[in-house]
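*** Query protein ***
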Amino acid sequence: MKPTFIDPETWEKTNILMQPAFIRLLDNIRKLTDELSTWKTSYEETLVWDADISEEQRGRIGLLQQELKSTTDNDRAYDIEQILETLPKPYPAYEWKLERGEELVTIDVWELCYKICFTLNYDPRIDRPAQVDNTLFDGDEVDWISLDQKAKHLVTDILSHLPTLS
């Protein structure tokens, strides 16, 4: 679920933090899961549609995308591209998968990044504007140490709550 923002400044600060949060998150996942040799870690990219996009619209868009890939008619390809430009687009989602035997745990990586970037009371299930965690900034710059500590704490917390780790 994409967060909502109270104002443009919050959106801008989030944009500044997201890439560093993503980097620190993946690095901490790698470090901390290396210690869990019985778990296989992988990532998968998926596409997510906004909730108001119907299955019919998704199907139509999918058909147009398939036709675009297969057409050899340049004029038709141009027409399809123009139509697709006006239609809704899915956004990428990244899933962190932990596997051990038959056990599979899937966690949304963007949600974890949001939890890092936003204040501690951020909950994607509650419809309220997100607030940037200003402790992750040193003036106008990202405080990489604080960011890394928050990412490490989040990953450690997730791994400690997996029921199959005990």
